[in-house]
Amino acid sequence: MGAPIRSRISDFVEPGGLPEPEPAAEPRRSRLRDLVEAAPPAQPDADGRPGPRPGVPAYGTPVLVPAHPRSVGTTGTQGGPARVPFVVLELFEHPAHGTVVFAFSTPQRLADALGEAQPWVAASIGPLAESVREQGVTVLLDPSVPPGRHNWRPADLVAYAQEVRR
Question: pTM of the predicted model, to two decimals?
Answer without folding.
Answer: 0.62
